[in-house]
Amino acid sequence: MNAEAFNTKVKRNVAHNFDQSIRLYREFEDKHGFFEALTMKMAEAIGIEEHASVLDIGCGYGVSACALHERLGCRVLGVDLSPEMIAAGRSYCQGEGIELCVGDGENLSSLVEDHSFDYALYNASIFIFPDVSRTIAESHRHLRDGGKIAFSFYPQLLGEDDADLFELAFERLGEPLPRFRVITGYAKAAAALESRCVDIGHHRWVRPLDIEFLQDFFSIPAQSASLFPGRGYEERRELSLRLFGTLGDQTKTGRIVWRMAEGAKSGAALRQ
User: How many alpha carbons lie under 13 Å from residue 85 in its C-beta half-sphere?
Assistant: First the structure.
């Protein structure tokens, strides 16, 4: 399978998984308020200004868009591959400053046209892009000079001495560690950012290890698919509950780490 065919297959699978996940994403967010909190942590870390224009890439049903609009008065254009997510988001998000549309973050020009933005954000979405260099190039093209690209990344579960608690949990469950928890790793995403932007910065949001949170998060169809590929959803859900249940003795020292990165567009970068 060539690269183009692989990328098309990945995007089709991603859209399908997220189409199936809307109800449980809503229930998860209603219970934990997590994606709004992650959005505002990233906004604080990179210094998003009030009333800024934002391109939200991989916007889901609009939690980030709504948070930025309601809390900071931002004008947000959200783009997502999943038609069902966008349909749900148009009902969920209220406000003239928010627009959500179905689209591919690796091909933004037909959606964005000649508009430019103050920020291009990937809130917990950059790791599902098969061609991360292309999506960063696309978002960079539609930034104003001095604008920023930023992303938050798939969680790390760390124990004492930064031990990988994902590995420990799979070992205890007796299941093989998935070959690909993400499509694009943090280092590759950061390298794509560095190739286009200046003033690169990295941030972390560290939370205590919360077993119930992890069980709820990875019970969402789109998330469980990354842990137990090729299994049916009900089996994935049951395995996810058992997987994180093995870490009950790690809650005193364990932590969930969400990494973030940012970079700015300069006039020099634009001329290259």
Answer: 28
